[in-house]
Structures are given as structure tokens and as C-alpha cells.
Amino acid sequence: MEDSSQSRVMLWTLPSSFASSFVNWIGHQSPQGAPKVQIVINPYATAHDVGPEKVRLPDDVNKDIIDKWNELHEDPNGNDGLYRKPIKDTDCSFKFAKDLLEQEFSDKKVVFCSDLSYGISGRFDMLPAGYLHSFLIRNPYKTLLSWRNLMQKCLGMDKDSFSVLVGDALYPVLDGYKKCWELIEHLQSQGNRVVVVDADDIQQDPGAILTKYCILVGITFPESRLHWDVGNESMRDWISGRSLLNQDGDNDDTFVESTSLPPFQPAPKRHDVPFDILAYIDASMPYYLKMHAMRIH
To answer: What's the helix, strand, coil split of the chain in %, to 5?
Structure first.
């Protein structure tokens, strides 16, 4: 049974949407040596991507791209080296993800799970009980360009070769905005309140926006800190699926050594964006704007 004084929050988002930075901030609000925040990362995305019930990709998705991506993230020991509590692929069914999130975590004041909206798509029956649902969105120009650049780098392809396969390489994020919106609609139809926050707003006014976010989701910290010490031991208590871990494009060292949120950068101009992702940006924008209208500001 969950503690009535304990706050439980889901943060649904997309790849390359500032989630790693957001989680890093939340996780470092615990005093050194006395972690009161339990962080869980991507249990549903792990079930969707690599678990025993993993979702079969469309026949037209290039398997070489998927195999290469899996190679880059494969760890035979099921341990990413950063956290002591990795989620093993072979264990991570959708029910496993739900049961994991519904554990007591009796020594924690906050249970905070960041996950990708596509991971729960079509499996709304597996949503965890007792959580308030929030959504982190980001301008599609930033998200799709960032994910494109990350994938091109990871796959070691030149610009022209990558352009031919961009639809396959960006598969996880292409309809991510639509899936976020569908999840919002489902939650609202069930009488759930949702909270939406935009990464740009956080970066431009972190103190005000994060304070509003915490109030709305029921999280209380004695003192909200926008800067923190390197290597907080509480990170070792985080539970994470390896699937698409740290999707803002930072390596583990950058993630661990960061001590503040990254500064705001304006969205790229349309003429500066590779032509091969413009159609995907245009398809995502209507869903982004619907969520943007609901955001904290």
C-alpha cells in the first residue's frame, strides 16, 4: 500500500526532449547521503523496445538500422555501469513495469518515473495506479533535429547516406507527439488531471517554472536547488532500463558530472534544418501546439 504522504509522479516525454536534464534536477533535490527521491527511468520503453513482449516493428523499418542501434546499447551483463539497479531486458514485461512502479518504496518521499509515451501506447491497461501524470514537451524543430544528429553520429553514417534512411533511424520519435497527445486524451477521459511543461519555458525561467511544476504535481522540497554537487550518491539508487538510456545525447560522464540545467538555445530556423526531417516536424507540430496550449506558464 502506498504512503499517503508520498508523492508519485510520471513524466511522459519523447527522446531528445530535455528529460535527462529534468530527471537529473529532480534526483538531486535529495540531501547528500539521504536520498528521499526514487528515480525510475524508462520501464515501459524498455518493455516496448527490448522486453519479452517487445513490440514488433513495421516490416518497412530497416533492420540494419535497428540492429546497429541495439549493438551500440548492448550489455551482456544487463548493467549500464552508472546505476546499481538496472532493469534486465529479459524481466521487463509490461506487467513487470507496472508492478515495479506500484512497489511501496517506503523509505522515499517521492517516486518519480520518466518514460517515453510510445512505450505505453496500446497498453493503457498497464498504466500504474496512484500516479499523477505529467508531460514534458519540446519544440519539434529541436527534438527531431537533436535526435537526427544523435542517430547519425551513433550509426557512423555520412549525411547523404543517413538521409536516405532517416525515416527508419528516427522511428522511435516520428509519431511521439501524437502518442503523447493520445495518452493525454485517454487520461483525461478517465478523469485524471495532467500537467504539461515545456522544456523551453524551464530553460528560460527555471526557478519559476519548476516551482509551479512541483506545486501542481504535489512534490515538496525543503529547498529547491538549481545547482548541485557532482556525483550525488543518490544516483546509485536510481532504477533504469537500458533501452535508449540518456536520450538527450549526453554520454554518461557528461550526465553524471553536470551540476545545473543546460542554458536555453533558440529553435533552429527552418532553412537551417535538414530537408529530410521537415515533413516529420510538420506532422508533429499540430500535436505539439495542442499540448503547448496546456502548458505551465
So the answer is: 45, 15, 40
Condensed to tens digits (0 to 9), the pLDDT of residues 20-72 reads: 888 888 887 765 555 588 999 999 988 988 889 988 666 555 666 666 656 65
- The backbone torsions φ and ψ at residue 265, rounded to the nearest 5 degrees and listed phi first, read -130, 135
**Residue 20 near residue 248 (C-beta atoms within 8 A):** yes
Half-sphere exposure of residue 256, counting CA atoms within 13 Å on the CB side?
13
- Intra-chain end-to-end CA distance of the chain, in Å: 35
CA distance readout (Å), 175 to 26, 78, 170: 27, 28, 10
Question: Which residues lie across from 115 on neighbouring strands?
Answer: 12
- Chain centroid to Cα 259, Å, comes to 19
Report residue 251: phi and psi, to 5°: -80, 170
Instruction: Tell me the pLDDT tens digit for each residue of 181-208.
Output: 999 999 999 999 999 999 999 999 998 9
- Name 137's bridge partners: 198
* Model pLDDT for residues 215-273, shown as the tens digit of each residue: 999 988 756 677 776 666 667 788 888 644 444 444 455 556 677 788 889 999 999 99
Q: For residue 169, what pLDDT band results from cuts at 50, 70 and 90?
A: low
Angle between the N-to-C axes of helices 278-292 and 140-155, in degrees from 0 to 180, rounded to the nearest 10: 140
CB 235, CB 37: distance < 8 Å:
no
Distance CA 158, CA 152 (A): 7
Q: Which residue has the cell 513524466?
A: 11
Helices (H), 79-204: 94-101, 140-155, 159-164, 166-169, 171-174, 176-189, 199-204
